[in-house]
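Hello forum,

I keep getting stuck at the same step: I have a sequence, I want structure tokens, and every attempt I make locally crashes halfway through. Rather than fight my setup again tonight, could one of you with a working pipeline run this one for me? It's a single chain of 85 residues.
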Amino acid sequence: MIFQDHGVRDVRNTVIGRWINSLRFFIGQAELYERTHGEKFVYNPNATKSENVMDRWILARCQSLIKHVKQEMEGELWRGAIVIL
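Reply #2:
Ran it on my machine without issues. Output:
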């Protein structure tokens, strides 16, 4: 596989940049939780599921995205995995 500079730059800017922004947002929200609740944020996979429609839509969309990217990456269809992101 041959990588071109502009292609790598595009992936960095569109995919990795978005992931970094999402991570920074999450870290900021976790820090806000810790400041306002006085306890460390710990992920609990057994937490009660939200009844909020928007929360449920976001989680469903994330699961669909994960499934699609895994399928594309297993088939080495890198472009298809990146486009959906």
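The longest helix spans residues 5-37. If your local run keeps crashing, start a new thread with the error log.
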